[in-house]
What does this fold into?
Amino acid sequence: MAGGMSAECPEPGPGGLQGQSPGPGRQCPPPITPTSWSLPPWRAYVAAAVLCYINLLNYMNWFIIAGVLLDIQEVFQISDNHAGLLQTVFVSCLLLSAPVFGYLGDRHSRKATMSFGILLWSGAGLSSSFISPRYSWLFFLSRGIVGTGSASYSTIAPTVLGDLFVRDQRTRVLAVFYIFIPVGRSCPAWRPWP
It folds into this structure.
């Protein structure tokens, strides 16, 4: 480069650009600032409320097995060892698929990827209610599918909230979102019957 001038754009400092030029005939792109989606504020808060509610349901679904484990063992006639395997299958599928959904969420529509995951775990959870006791292996499979779908939501939902809100609003909304994790975990233990 002639004259030792860098062709790179200078870093902005506290007083703006540091008095450097990007070079003859070149212009620096405008600085990138974090912006939220172009939604009216009320729609962003409605979306956040829906995501928080789904987060509550998601974590209830994670721990529902612990609340009804004895009933599941009785219906499917499974031993304690196999009953423990239910949560292992769930967590293993969740751990293996979370990076995949993170990758997809960065490169494709987050809303579509997250919606697919929600449909996957809610559909698998609903269909597991109709599994015959003779096919206990299907129940294990459904728990794996629930774990896979949950990975999609748990991975992508916080990033959607991060896109919807900026600065202090983002921190407050994410704090409320994450409050639903312990609440969802404790809900399956609230059994109205003895």
